[in-house]
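Input/output pair, single chain:
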Amino acid sequence: MRLRVLLTVLTHHDLPRLRRALASVRLQRRARTVDVDVVVVVNSLNREYERLVVRTAAELGVRVVATDSNGRPGRGKNACVDLFLESGCDYLCQLDGDDWLYPTWAQSVREHLRQLPQVDALGIVPIDCLGSSDGFTFEVEQGLDAAVWGTSAAYPFDSTGPGVAPLWLEAGTTASSDMIRLLSRAAAARWRFDEELPIGEDTLLSLALLSSHQRGELSYWLTMASDWMIVDRTTPGSVQRTYSHKEALEPLRTKAAQLVDPARSSAAELPILYPPLLLSTDEKRSWIERTWRLKATASGPRG
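Output:
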């Protein structure tokens, strides 16, 4: 039986990067391995940007939905969850509009679900980044680095089993160890993103899923499949650059402690999959260099 994946592309500003994301998404819609349904979700307080996205999506033949935004990312991500639960799809993958996919995404998703047919949540660790110095690093242009990983990388945690997450150990970090890339219907129906946090909503979801995994309610795995997507950490006006991690840290810790025991909050106790990569380091580098900035959309409105 063919699997259906709802791929939601969430955007709140930056039309050029959204066009880049959608260009990479179009390659997946022709995949023979899974059926991919695509929808753009606009979570923006800027009505002009919303109109631009609606027009762009119409030009590209992509469905678009606008949220009633409160200026926080959680509301847009919950809109993605709601669309998924209303659909007939088996899994949800949410992509931020400033990130983009490798052409191997759909193939890798299908292989993961073949190996883990009962998985409810799947997180990638580590992940390839534009504007990072972790991993195999190369210069895309002067002053701009990209970093990619392979499954030969060392185990991503200091130890296995119970432990304390960086949220409680590292001053100023609100990040989680992994990026949730797939959610089953059972997982999506159980937890929602916090709509008040300015940043860290992904971390809170990861810890909530970890808590469910510890109680045996859901199957939560990590994967070293770094051939799914590229995260763009250079986006001007992104929420990570707009809001202070230091100010968001204590509210996030308080909410997280209500979900999971801090002493057992490390993702190191989750099972982890080391699949063979479908792209070599050189192939990743070639893809990033060819697609990181589309000439046709490198300049234009950001909203």
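The chain is about 35% helix and 20% strand. The first strand starts at residue 4 and ends at 11.
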